[in-house]
Amino acid sequence: MEIPPKGAIEIETVLPASVEKVWQAWTAPDIILQWFGSDPNGKGIAAVLNVQPGGAFQITFADANGTVHTCSGTYTIVEEFSKLNFTWEWKSEPGVVSFVTIILTPEGDNTQMNFTHADLGNESKHDYLNGWNATFLKLKTVLDKSR
User: Fold this and answer.
1) Which of 90, 33, 39 is CA-nearest to residue 63?
2) Which of the residues 53, 56, 58, 85 could staple to 77 if both were Cys, CB 3.0 to 4.6 A apart?
């Protein structure tokens, strides 16, 4: 395994779905809105995903208390059903850019997801480790319901 760049978090998890369904959860706007955001009672508002190298994405979601968040970035690597790499920036923190890598590996009827969010630095006020872990619990729930 590669050593992640300084200021990175890594999460490895097994998701209850095929790599095709997990890929779709990351790349289909209607599905990403069902699980994106760390608030268990939050909701997706809008998602535009141009999933190709050089393509941009923007996702807006709200916490249960009404706080709205928007993240955006550009896809740098798109290998269907196996790897996504993209830049990450919050609308509320312009110019603070980090990088996300997602690697999907089939594991029987499930998918091993290796997730890295790198180059976090100290500029962002977000708690990425807890935020992504909470977000992935929602992803697991959505995938489990689609079985």
Assistant:
1) 39
2) 85
- Kind and range of the H or E run holding 47: strand 43-49
Q: How many domains is the chain partitioned into structurally?
A: 1
Which residues form the domain of 118? 9-145
Angle at 93 between CA 123 and CA 62, to 5 degrees: 125
Question: Is the pTM above the cut of 0.90?
Answer: yes
Q: What is the mean pLDDT of each run of 10 residues along the chain (147 residues)?
A: 66 97 98 96 97 98 96 98 97 93 97 95 81 96 89
Evaluate whether 96 touches 90 at the Cβ level (below 8 Å): yes
Determine which helix (DSSP H) or strand (DSSP E) holds 129, and give its type and residue range. Answer: helix 128-145
Token pair 């006020």: residue:
125
Pick the closest to residue 143 from 32, 59, 38 (CA basis): 32
Domain membership flag for residue 103: yes
Spatial separation of the C-alpha atoms in residues 99 and 97, rounded to whole Å: 7
Q: What is the CATH number of the domain that holds 141?
A: 3.30.530.20
